[in-house]
Write a structure and sequence with these properties.
The protein is mostly beta strands and about 800 residues long. It has one domain (about 5-800): TonB-dependent receptor, beta-barrel domain (Maltoporin, Chain A, Beta Barrel), CATH 2.40.170.20. About 10% of the residues lie in helices and about 55% in strands. The radius of gyration is 27 Å and the shape is globular. The two termini are about 45 Å apart.
Length: about 800
């Protein structure tokens, strides 16, 4: 492997500096170490009140603004590298600015309008209902908190896996700020600035922040030779106004933010084709190794995530979002009132060649529009040994989704290239949710504390889908039921009966209501000043809904997924708080797990959700950090996860057959994740050097297990063997191999003027890996991946005041 001198120097510097510093630092006295090396208190709001992280009885990872910068959390999806058991993935079949999260195997299956996330995302206490435009740069963020395990009582529905909280920097009445500029390889350029401006002393102050970034593409489109994945522009701004009058017992915070990003498509790389699959049937000879090898040597690029093949000349992603929020805190004697009111709107569009082959097989135009309003009221207080909080929550979202599929647009039977969309799905949707909640903490003794909470949620969802097959105006050959059939122009996508035309131009209205409880109970015991022991259990639900794309009969709607878990843990401090160790073990039960199915329904390429069995998962998470000598900080975390389906629990809607899925792999559940890092600070007469190096590893993970359909009693032994073999091959291709990446940062800081120069590298050794996968090996006949970022490096200069 060829390694640039810059990357090698950065890695060596980051690793050698701590060793050189050790002898000098070891001469410090024990008293100096105890006073200067202990970890500072980290305040978290995992239970809607401010608490010391080490006294909070649940699994939480917290990252400060300094940690965000040191560990190079540049994009939202980067937090996967710092929290055990957390997975993030972007791209997929949606826009690149969409990122989805998974914790302990609880994940969002699809970014569409009616599929919700199992991990709630919150920015300054505001819930983001859709992942649209969520994978943006981290701008002026004060801290990030990752809460693992069910969080339904205080955070509501769709937190069956956990929650991620982003808290932005708030104005504090003091004139301060920073300006930073970055340059890097791939023509990367970025400028960022933020400032707090006192308008009336500490009573009224304003915080403004902004960023502009651009970057060249990471991959090459083989047919055109043009880069794919250029970040043409990324703009983000935020303004926060804080009013805290000394004459009134209240604080009012108003904020507005705006983000917009444009990039040149998502890098899609083909890794497998099925010679006997549907696409090979429709493209005779074009899916053979010989054909693909002769076609621009494409077959030799299998498994190379730095090349793609987009017959659409210019793939693109366009994303925009903005929002307004107001938070009011009022002290009413012994009671505190808090109100959070927010409105957000997101708009995203993309064009993607999904199959990644020279044949013009499957491409999509997608557009998502969503706006949401939310209102939360909280009352909290204390009565003797009892701390309490009660509240009410209202959430409403509406929007629309459009998906044009260019499926089979260069089928030879159609005379070659035909860029008119072959099918279209239009969906208008409205969702409403209301909830009431309460939680109490009671000090049984000065060491033993009990917590109990309950929430009840009422959801109502409605949507009108308008799906049309074959809008080209000419007969279209498609693969359905194991054979090629012809779909006539402008037939509706409803159920499984081709050609049926419901009223109102294919309109298909749906409506559903759900209600469900969430609860939690825990006991925690402060064994001494340094050790907290706890045990907790909880239950929550992932919202039910309905599919707006073509589905088999009976699969139009899907039920809520109910989750309950138990967790036991320890949070400990040793050696005068120079060593911290946090451990959690857990067991999760998921009933009616929601999964995404990819396939062809009535001649239409489709993706829909269905409840597909019960899942049990268990594992452990360990986080530790240490300060062994002056200026040195070590950190490590590990997650071990085992998840499997329960025996005989899955009834497939398409076949009405009972599937034995026992011990099958559950999607998005890698057995291991591991991180390790070291930071060394060295004070000199002219300034301070800081060297940081970290490593993050994730083991192999599956993106959707396929079960062989053996329900037909007429199947011969040979047919059963073939189906089992096809499923095994699909599952092998549907699993991404494990990988690990190194990141490093070398910084020089001076105090007057406050200037910082940093040399940095991400994925220093250029590990090639894929971050996402679309597996339709048996349904459509191919598997494709989305490439992860290559090795990048650059320099950042920062001026603070």
């Amino acid at each position: 492997m060829k390694i640039s001198s810059f990357r090698l120097a950065l890695a060596c510097s980051a690793s050698v500096l701590p060793i050189l510093a050790a002898p000098a630092m070891a001469q410090d006295t024990q008293e100096e170490q105890a006073s200067s090396q202990g970890f500072e208190t980290i305040v978290v709001t995992a239970r809607k009140v401010e608490e010391d992280l080490q006294s909070t009885p649940l699994a939480v990872t917290a990252l400060s603004a300094e940690g965000i910068e040191t560990q190079q959390i540049v994009m939202v999806q980067d937090i996967q590298r710092v929290a055990p058991g957390l997975l993030t993935r972007g791209a997929g079949t949606g826009p690149s600015a969409i990122v989805t999260f998974a914790i302990r195997g609880n994940a969002q299956n699809s970014p569409n309008s009616v599929s919700d996330s199992a991990v709630g995302i919150y920015v300054d206490g505001v819930y983001l209902g859709r992942p649209i435009s969520s994978n943006v740069g981290v701008l002026d963020v004060a801290n990030i908190q990752v809460l693992r395990g069910t969080q339904g009582t205080l955070f509501g529905r769709n937190t069956t896996g956990g929650a991620v909280q982003f808290t932005t920097t708030q104005p504090d009445g003091e004139f301060s700020g920073y300006v930073k500029g970055t340059v890097g390889n791939y023509k990367a350029r970025q400028i960022e600035a933020a400032a707090t401006i006192p308008l009336a002393g500490e009573e009224l102050s304003l915080r403004v922040a902004g960023r502009y970034a651009e970057r060249g593409g990471f991959g090459i489109n083989v047919p055109t030779g043009r880069p794919i994945g250029d970040l043409e522009s990324d703009v983000a701004t935020r303004a926060t106004l804080r009013w805290a009058p000394t004459s009134l017992p209240l604080t009012l915070t108003l904020s507005a933010d705006y983000v917009k990003s444009n990039d040149n498509g998502t890098l899609n790389a083909l890794i497998a084709v099925k010679p006997t699959g549907p696409l090979a049937t429709l493209f005779p000879g074009q899916f053979s190794p010989n054909f693909l090898q002769n076609r621009q040597n494409y077959y030799n690029n299998f498994g190379n995530p730095r090349t793609g093949n987009a017959n659409i000349d210019t793939p693109l992603n366009r994303n925009k979002a903005y929002g307004f929020a107001g938070t009011l805190d009022v002290e009413l004697g012994e009671i505190n009132l808090k109100s959070i009111t927010a409105y957000r709107k997101a708009d995203s569009a993309n064009t993607l060649d999904l199959d990644g082959t020279p044949a013009g097989a499957i491409a999509f135009n997608s557009a998502y529009l969503q706006d949401q309003f939310s209102q939360e009221l909280q009352l909290s207080g204390a009565i003797g040994n009892l701390d309490w909080i009660v509240g009410a929550y209202y959430f409403r979202e509406e929007g629309n989704e459009r998906s044009d599929s260019f499926a089979l647009y260069s089928v030879p039977a159609l005379g070659g290239l035909n860029l008119a969309p072959s099918g279209r799905n239009l969906t208008d949707f409205v969702s409403k949710s209301t909830a009431l909640f309460a939680q109490v903490n009671y000090d049984i003794t000065d060491k033993l504390r009990a917590t109990a909470g309950f929430r009840y949620t009422w959801d109502k969802r409605s949507a009108v889908g308008r799906g049309v097959n074959n809008i080209r105006g000419v007969p279209e050959p498609v693969f359905a039921g194991g054979r090629v059939i012809v779909i006539q122009p402008n037939t509706c996508r409803v159920g499984t009966t081709a050609g049926t035309t419901p009223p109102a131009a294919c309109a298909f209205p749906q409506e559903a209501s759900f209600s469900y409880p969430a609860w939690t109970f825990s006991l925690d015991y402060q064994a001494n000043d340094d050790i907290l022991l706890y045990a907790r259990t909880g239950g929550a639900s992932l919202s039910g809904g309905f599919n707006t794309r073509p589905t088999p009969v009976g699969a139009e709607a899907f039920s809520p997924e109910d989750v309950r878990d138990i967790e036991a843990g320890m949070k400990a401090e040793f050696l005068d708080n120079r060593l911290q160790t946090n451990l959690a073990v857990f067991h999760v039960w998921r009933n009616g797990a929601q999964n995404i199915v990819n396939g062809i329904v009535n001649g239409s390429i489709s993706q829909f959700a269905q409840n597909s069995g019960n899942i049990r998962a268990y594992g452990l998470e360990l986080e530790t950090k240490a300060r062994p000598w002056q200026g040195m900080e070590l950190m490590a975390s590990v997650s071990r996860l085992k998840a499997s389906y329960q025996n005989g629990s899955f009834i497939d809607i398409g076949t009405n057959g009972l599937f034995d899925r026992s011990d099958e792999v559950v999607a998005q559940t890698p057995k291991w994740t591991f991180t390790a890092g070291a930071t060394q600070e060295i004070e000199t007469g002219i300034g301070k050097f800081v060297a940081h190096l970290d490593y993050a590893y994730i083991s192999a993970r599956n993106f959707g297990q396929e079960t062989a359909d053996l329900t037909n009693p007429a199947l011969t032994a040979a047919q059963r063997t073939t189906r089992l073999a096809d499923a095994a091959i699909a599952n092998a291709f549907g699993t991404l191999p494990g990988y690990g990446i190194f990141n490093g940062r070398l910084t020089f800081e001076i105090e007057d003027p406050n200037i910082e120069i940093a040399l940095w590298g991400r994925n220093i050794f250029g590990t090639r890996y894929a971050q996402n996968l679309f597996n339709s090996y048996n349904q459509l006949g191919f598997t494709a991946t989305n490439a992860g970022e290559p090795g990048t490096y650059g320099m950042t200069a920062t001026f603070r005041w």
